[in-house]
Design brief:
alpha+beta, binds ligand DP6, 2 domains, Alpha-Beta Plaits, 397 residues, six-stranded mixed beta sheet, Ribosomal Protein S5, domain 2, single chain
Length: 397
């Protein structure tokens, strides 16, 4: 048993969790409440050195109510998806206790929680933050309540794509068949160490927020797009098999082509939605052209793009082509000269663009089309850290 006085001190844990980018997209639910998808999907977990969410959860007998602070601002704890995650973790914790698996943290089970979460990247950049956010919340709650094992099914109930952020490297979300969603889980295909030459660039296209959110966008798509139905039933199942094979054999050409085709099909289903949804803008389309012209110049697929529900491009390539491709991007999207550094994250060496390549691409430059590049790679899943965001009073520091 714990000493009596420790019961008034908050039990506190802090964890970090990564962002993931889908190369086979999730778009459409068969169950809105449980967040069950109409197709499986596959993603690459991005490295937390560049993009991560940090979450502290504290429990204490003295807390009056559950509370949450996101990026410095107190938010509504009654948010249904937040409540789902809290309820499911508490349910698992109770189940463990009833099963007699006495853990150290059981004293705090009935206590209220204080949650504080921050991103190390600007939310305004329009990078998917809900995946990292819910993955981090669920992982941290599980630590606090002493719950172990499969947690992706709970993260999924916060945000579908969050289940894939529960693992590092290359991750599939198996759609499952059951009505209760028990078999709709994420699974690691290969760890982050599997493909060390694979590099990732996030091209931040604009600071504007997306117009149509994923949740409502995919709802309209399920209701109106027969292309989406065809995609889910007849395209994705085969593509998942091919993509897993491409990842396992480190076949960049196959990986890149499947990635681009799947992104394009996802955006085609958005256009097939009625009324249509547009996530790509002129900058996005210029990036697509640039990648295809670059690849055509070399007569091989050296670079791939993918876009989620917004205009930012995520680019995949092998290490040996990073320097040159960054030069190309910088030339065709001349950055704002008074701005900060154009390339953040993993270092990229400087070089000058050959006239030959410049002419072969032959696009009209779009000044300030891209505000900055985040240079990163595949990374690990959630982990526990020491630096807490809540003080001993249970309030944000
Ligand atoms: C285009 O996971 O944000 O990024 O489940 O409603 O929270 P909800 O949606 P969300 O959708 C992500 C859609 C996507 C593709 C993907 O990540 O697979």
């Amino acid at each position: 048993a714990l000493p009596e006085d420790s019961m008034d001190k908050p039990n506190i844990v802090t964890c970090t969790a990564p962002v993931n980018i889908a190369v086979i997209k999730y778009w459409g639910k068969r169950n809105e409440d449980l967040i069950l998808p109409i197709n499986s999907s596959l993603s690459v977990t991005l490295h937390q050195d560049q993009l991560k969410t940090t979450t502290t959860v504290a429990t204490s007998r003295s807390f009056q109510e559950d509370r949450i602070w996101l990026n410095g601002k107190e938010e509504d704890i009654t948010h249904p998806r937040l409540q789902s995650c809290l309820r499911e973790i508490r349910r698992l914790a109770r189940k463990r206790r009833n099963d007699g698996e006495a853990g150290l943290n059981l004293t705090g089970m009935s206590h209220k929680v204080h949650i504080c979460s921050v991103n190390n990247f600007p939310t305004a950049a329009g990078l998917a933050s809900s995946a990292a956010g819910f993955a981090c919340l669920v992982y941290t709650l599980a630590q606090v309540f002493g719950v172990e094992g499969e947690l992706s099914g709970i993260a999924r109930q916060g945000s579908g794509s969050a289940c894939r952020s529960m693992y590092g490297g290359f991750v599939q979300w198996i759609m499952g068949k059951k009505d209760d969603g028990k078999d709709s889980l994420a699974q690691q295909v290969e760890p982050e160490t599997h493909w060390p030459d694979l590099r990732i660039l996030v091209l931040v296209a604009s600071a504007e927020r997306k117009q149509v959110g994923s949740t409502s966008g995919m709802q309209t798509s399920v209701q109106t797009s027969c292309l989406l139905k065809h995609r889910a039933e007849s395209v994705v199942p085969e593509r998942m098999v091919e993509m897993i094979e491409a990842v396992q054999t480190k076949d960049f050409t196959a990986f890149a082509e499947l990635t681009m085709k799947d992104s394009n099909q996802f955006h085609a289903t958005c256009l097939d939605t009625y009324p249509p949804i547009f996530y790509l803008n002129n900058v996005s389309r210029q990036v697509i052209n640039l990648v295809h012209r670059y690849n055509r110049h070399y007569g091989e697929t050296r670079v791939a793009y993918t876009f989620d529900a917004g205009p930012n491009a995520v680019i995949f390539m092998l290490q040996q082509h990073v320097t040159e491709f960054v030069q190309v991007v910088q030339h065709f999207f001349p950055p704002d000269t008074n701005g900060g550094q154009f390339i953040k994250g993993l270092p990229v060496s400087c070089a000058s663009l050959s006239k030959d390549l410049e002419q072969a691409i032959g696009l009209e430059p779009m000044p300030k089309g891209i505000s900055y590049i985040i240079s990163t790679k595949a990374g690990p899943g959630p982990c526990v850290v020491e630096d807490h965001l809540l003080g001993s009073d249970g309030l944000p520091k």
